[in-house]
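Final report, Chapter 2: Outcomes

The project's central promise was a pipeline that accepts a single protein chain and returns its three-dimensional structure in a standardized token representation, suitable for archiving and comparison. That pipeline is now operational. To close this chapter, we reproduce one record exactly as it appears in the project archive, with the input sequence first and the structure output second.
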Amino acid sequence: MSCPGYWCPTPGWEGARVLELDRVAKRFGDAVACTDVSLTVRYGEVFGLAGGGKTTVLRIAAGLLTPDTGAVRRAGEHLGYLPQSRGLYPRMRVLDHLVYLAELHGAHTNDAVRAAESWAARFGLRARRADRVRELSVLEQHRLWLAAAFVTTPDVLVLDEPFAGLDPDTSDVLAAVVRERAAAGAAVLVATDELPVVEWLCDRVGVLHNGRMVASGAVDELRARVELVVSVPAAPADWAAGLPGVSTLSVHNGLFRLALTDGADDQAVLAAALATGPVREFTRVRPGLADVLRDVMGAR
């Protein structure tokens, strides 16, 4: 079938993926927001997006921005979107707000009320459901926005910095809800620079730098990276250059952090280190994913 414009919710397209961005790019005047960004979020998966340009990418994924080039394909009927900049109707009552949003997405009134009651309770707003939005605390308004993102039981979720401003208890509830929705078959795209969140919540991750995807992969694969900490006080700064599968991450007073790719020989690294003089430390470590992602973003 042909698709009007750039976005295409394609019937029968659900098999291999739910949300796909195919080489999308967006400029605002002379400023490049994102360039040649491709990603795929599958059913039952949480995909994390970190780095510069992620908000533009998410707004394109949600259908709020039209890319200058590229395409967005999405299977599924219901989208839940949580923007980074959030607005509420201050005079509406909490439950009415959720019912209105559910009905706006096609729910019948009875179903909308049941869903609104359920999600208000899930995010700790049961006692406030008859209060007006303007009477809520800042944290309670954050919780209302979270409930609003889920009230339509979306099969595609696009969440921009959803953990910003939350207390630990609400963060735990949100993480549990995200994993539940993924387990139920939803595709979840989460943008956050809180790298520990990426590590314990996401299945796969992509890293943007100046709006361009510079790294992506399964969290387990990225977490499996091996590093060496080598102290060689007499070694020149480039002593590890040219060693197969080895890259230098940092150098400080003769202390080197080296990253090893699969198959790299740490004994060859040790031999090269010994050739420079005394080796005071030689330690093999596995960094956390947050450290890996910081290295990727900091090296660009």
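Archive annotation: Residues 1-16 have pLDDT under 50 and may be disordered.
This record, like all others produced under the grant, will remain available to the consortium after the project formally closes.
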